[in-house]
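Exam revision sheet. Question 4 asks you to relate a sequence to its structure. Input first:
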Amino acid sequence: MKITKSVQRIGWRFSQGKPFQPNQNDIEAYNDIVDYVGINQKETIVDNVLFTKMYIYLLGEFLNYYGTTVNDPILQKELHKILDSDMSSLIEQFRSKANHQELNTIKTVEDLENFKAMTFQECVDNLKIMTTEAINQFSPKHLNRV
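Answer key, structure tokens:
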């Protein structure tokens, strides 16, 4: 059974308002729900592991940038500022930096004339591809959704 049908099955059974002896369909529905919860918990753990790796890495970068110690509150403050930021603001900052870097690589007038700055939508599309590829590469394949 698919998870939606399994939840409907169990919901229907309990909505009858009378005692019942579980049958094979009820057992399968219950097992599907247990499996689904287990898979989602594993996916959450994987997602959090990837997030934690990036958090630790950036914490180390800020540690070097600020030339401070791990106990300095500026590190947490800066990380929390990023996590609290609006996604579109982060994308715009990234787009601006990417365009600036592209301009810095231009060596000829012809290259400058041919330069086309990345639009916000192009940046969003590229970031979606890049983040999806990273998630697919670093998430275990056995955690496919039910």
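Marking note for examiners. The two ends are 10 Å apart (CA to CA).
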